[in-house]
Amino acid sequence: MKEIFERISVRKYQDKSVEADKIEQILKAAMAAPSASNQQPWEFYVVTDKEKIRQLSKISPYAACAENAPLIIVPCYRTKGLRWNETVLLDLSAATENMLLEVTSLGLGGVWLCAAPLEERMTRTEAVLEIPADLRAFALIAVGYPAESRTQQNRFDENRVHYI
Questions:
Q1: Do residues 25 and 110 touch, judged by C-beta distance below 8 A?
Q2: In a domain, 163, yes or no
Q3: What is the CATH number of the domain that holds 51?
Q4: Burial classification of residue 31, based on how many CB atoms lie within 10 Å of its CB (0-12 exposed, 13-18 middle, 19 or more buried)
Q5: Residues forming a β-bridge with 106
Q6: 103 located within any domain
Q7: pLDDT tens figures, 129-161
Q8: Residue 121 and residue 138: Cα distance in Å, rounded?
Q9: Residue 15 lies in a domain
Q10: DSSP string spanning 29-50?
Q11: DSSP assignment, residue 159?
């Protein structure tokens, strides 16, 4: 998949909204991710409200780049009714990577901004969006049309591969 080798973290966005059909495609990609025992612990908050985006951009010093994004998707995980609570961060990571690959395939740019497992960032995100107590914020995914361009670095390092 070429998107694996093209995806970069985009932190600057054009002043242009992301179309509803593209948002739906991103969410479909997220929900196509594997999850332990197929429990699919995810819920997604789609944020286009400028004031909420501004507030979310303040949850950490690293989230400031999201302030001018036209869209933030906040993947969350359920805390009740799951068979494998220990795997929710893995499940949400897979869903988030799927989102970022779909973002790239749609000609958009995005960046994964950490909330979990940092309690302060999680609770601040949950407060801004008034997320119910049985959900936990996992991350902020800022998305938009890129206002920057660069090539992904080659990260392959054969010294980290061990054949047995």
A1: no
A2: no
A3: 3.40.109.10
A4: middle
A5: none
A6: yes
A7: 999 999 999 999 999 999 988 888 899 999 999
A8: 9
A9: yes
A10: HHHTS--GGG---EEEEEE--H
A11: G
